[in-house]
């Protein structure tokens, strides 16, 4: 019997009518002879509403209590879906994160899964039940309820798939797959049939909101075949795997973008008043994610280091750096807001020089100023003014001919 893990996101379970539709879909998979674990998100915008309620009481609610609150969203869905499945004549059992044996580290609101005790799920499957598991949640070694970070249900699904050695993990969502760029904002964006884990990982990290980045990381580590597909139609979605079919002349596969980026600049009076590492170690200790880093030490000029962070982390980053000012040895800090990051991604870049140059040239011709650059083997990112974000994404999508479905090489 094939073991499958399927995950349905918030929009797919937004109402009880949606949940009935999901139940019918699950029934179909069970009738094909598959043994199913179904991971679900909270219904519709429930998580946002819960966050909003907490914020009505306090601007900075305790992260522990926020985790307890947010996990109730998924708990509602698992019970309703199990009831809907039972109504269709299936045996079904719901599991919260801790009931499913999902053990995480002790990091409220952004915990990583450390280990999954699969006995309870495996027992349910052996008894012919559908196991319905709450996404996005786990329990730490002190029995605190934890969450995996917004969008974390994808990660729950892939982690369970790896732990029970499932054949595949299918992520059902409200779009038909992974697109060359966000079709809501970029003209002629199209679905990509296949992507390598590495390309997807870059796209997910660079703001293509369709998958939680850690889910792709896990899929890659465990070589778990993973698909992203629509819960509203039968169309094949996007398949993620290690090696994908070569596409003729394809260098860039996708354009990702993300707003609300802040550039922080730290000024020193003299070079090396402290190790550069200490700034980033300090920030990392406080779970501040630093992205692009640019350091410049030029004779006769004030040495600086600039780096980008997300808007939500600005306040915390400034407080932490301020508290450690003396040990970090800097003079002052300033920051620039209203920035965005636009990136191009594709494994073909590794063997095709000149891609970054084409990108910069395109942006220059469009009159878009570039403030920071970062590259890896398979991506180039630029930080630009936020008001130019969609302009840049559309221009690059066209520059690299992404609207045209490439021929594949057999
Ligand atoms: N419900 C959570 C969120 O909205 C987790 C998820 O949907 O993946 O972030
Ligand atoms: Mg999601």
List the helices and strands and how they pair.
Elements: E1 3-8, H1 16-31, E2 35-40, H2 46-57, H3 63-87, E3 92-95, E4 102-104, E5 113-116, H4 119-126, E6 130-134, E7 137-139, E8 145-147, H5 153-163, E9 168-173, E10 194-196, H6 197-205, H7 213-221, E11 226-230, E12 238-241, E13 254-267, H8 276-285, E14 293-296, E15 304-310, H9 314-323, H10 325-328, E16 332-345, H11 355-365, E17 372-376, E18 379-385, H12 389-399
Parallel strand pairs: 1-2, 1-9, 2-6, 3-6, 9-11, 10-12
Antiparallel strand pairs: 4-5, 7-8, 11-12, 13-15, 13-16, 14-15, 16-18, 17-18
Helix pairs in contact: 1-3, 2-3, 5-7, 6-7, 11-12
EC number: 2.7.2.4
GO biological process, one term: threonine biosynthetic process
Binding site for substrate: 47, 74
Description:
Residues 3-229 form the Aspartate/glutamate/uridylate kinase domain. This is Aspartokinase. It catalyses: L-aspartate + ATP = 4-phospho-L-aspartate + ADP. This protein has 410 residues and is an alpha/beta fold. The chain folds into two domains: 3-174, 3-Layer(aba) Sandwich (Carbamate kinase); 255-399, VC0802-like, CATH 3.30.2130. It is built from twelve helices and 18 strands. It has helices spanning 16-31, 46-57, 63-87, 119-126, 153-163, 197-205, 213-221, 276-285, 314-323, 325-328, 355-365, 389-399, and strands at 3-8, 35-40, 92-95, 102-104, 113-116, 130-134, 137-139, 145-147, 168-173, 194-196, 226-230, 238-241, 254-267, 293-296, 304-310, 332-345, 372-376, 379-385. The strands form four sheets. Strands 3-6-2-1-9-11-12-10 form an eight-stranded mixed β-sheet, with helices on both faces. It has a six-stranded antiparallel β-sheet with strand order 14-15-13-16-18-17. It has a two-stranded antiparallel ribbon with strand order 4-5. Strand 14 (293-296) and strand 15 (304-310) form a beta hairpin. It is globular. The model has no long low-confidence stretch (mean pLDDT 93). The chain binds aspartic acid (ASP) and magnesium ion. Magnesium ion is lined by residues 9, 151, 154.
């Amino acid at each position: 019997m094939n073991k499958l893990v399927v995950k349905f996101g918030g929009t797919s379970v937004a109402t009880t009518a949606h949940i009935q539709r999901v139940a019918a879909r699950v029934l179909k998979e069970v009738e094909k002879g598959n043994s199913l674990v179904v991971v679900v998100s909270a219904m519709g915008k429930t998580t946002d509403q819960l966050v909003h309620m907490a914020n009505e009481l306090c601007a900075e609610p305790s992260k522990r209590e926020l985790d307890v609150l947010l996990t109730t969203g998924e708990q509602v869905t698992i019970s309703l879906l199990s009831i809907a499945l039972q109504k269709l004549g299936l045996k079904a059992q719901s599991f919260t994160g801790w009931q499913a044996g999902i053990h995480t580290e002790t990091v409220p609101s952004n915990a990583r899964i450390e280990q999954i005790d699969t006995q309870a799920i495996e027992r349910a499957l052996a008894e012919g039940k559908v196991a319905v598991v709450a996404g996005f949640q786990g329990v730490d070694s002190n029995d605190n309820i934890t969450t995996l970070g917004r969008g974390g249900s994808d990660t729950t699904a892939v982690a369970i798939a790896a732990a029970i050695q499932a054949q595949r993990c299918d992520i059902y969502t409200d779009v038909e797959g992974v697109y060359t760029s966000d079709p809501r904002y970029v003209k002629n964006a199209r679905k990509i049939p296949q992507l390598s884990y590495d390309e997807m990982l870059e796209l997910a990290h660079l703001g293509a909101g369709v998958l939680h980045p850690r889910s792709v990381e896990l899929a890659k580590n465990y070589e778990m075949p993973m698909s992203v597909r629509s819960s509203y139609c039968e169309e094949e979605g996007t398949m993620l795997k290690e090696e994908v079919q070569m596409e003729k002349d394809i260098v860039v596969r996708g354009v990702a973008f993300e707003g609300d980026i802040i550039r922080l600049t730290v000024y020193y009076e003299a070079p090396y008043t402290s190790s550069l590492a200490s700034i980033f170690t300090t920030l990392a200790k406080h779970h501040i994610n630093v992205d692009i880093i640019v350091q410049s030490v030029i004779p006769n000029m004030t040495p600086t280091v600039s780096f980008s962070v997300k808007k939500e982390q600005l306040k915390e980053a400034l407080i932490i750096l301020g508290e450690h000012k003396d040990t970090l040895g800097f003079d002052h800090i300033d920051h620039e807001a209203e920035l965005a990051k636009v990136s191009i991604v594709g494994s073909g870049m590794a063997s095709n020089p000149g891609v970054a140059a084409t990108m910069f040239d395109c942006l220059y011709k469009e009159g878009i100023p570039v403030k920071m650059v970062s590259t890896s083997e398979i991506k180039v990112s630029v930080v630009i003014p936020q008001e130019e974000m969609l302009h840049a994404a559309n221009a690059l999508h066209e520059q690299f001919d992404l609207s045209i479905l490439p021929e594949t090489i057999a």
